[in-house]
Amino acid sequence: MKIIAAITALITLLSCNYDTKPMAEPTAMLEPVEVATQNGMRKAYFASGCFWCVEAVFESVKGVDEAISGYSGGTEDNPTYKQVSYGKTTHAEAVEVIYDPEVISYQQLVDVFFGSQDPTTNNRQGPDAGPQYRSIAFYQNEEEKKIIENTITELNESTYDGRIVTQVLPFQKFWIAEAYHQDYEKNNPNNPYIQNISVPRYQRFAAKFPELLKDDAH
Q1: pTM (2 decimals)?
Q2: Is 111 helix (H, G, I), strand (E, B) or coil?
Q3: Catalytic residue among 14, 23, 50, 169
């Protein structure tokens, strides 16, 4: 019994979600909302598990100016981390990627998205379980939608044998997460989750895409 309790405690410790309350179900979306560019930079939106991990991956990529942790994919206004991580909303933990299209293409960002996760685990990424950790590629126009869908088709044929469960949803709204979540991996290197889950996930991605990494990527 002590061994079982210890294993349970370890799983809880190494999770982006420290609560085991019932999870909310995902919701259907409306038509996509086009997001304006600023100073030549564009924005892209993805969800693939704990946003601490996803933010760190995208911020290591050439052409990405910044990745911001937040919430998207649901209907509730002004969601909080406690609400989302406890499964009390229909949102997923997500990132807003601000990038220079002259340096990196949207197709390459989609490749990074799929190459830095397991897109075959339904409502789960590593130790983090529930719809708030589901895999979502948000599109803002038909061109982005086509790129995502074509990539899924190719990966299902070449690698995943039709098992990809990633949702392809029109982008509606991104809610920025609380300040302490931003650059979380960088600011909390000794956190057990960061050391045991986030860093290894980044290292697996970096090994696949060394040509996309910034010179100062960790």
Answers
A1: 0.86
A2: helix
A3: 50
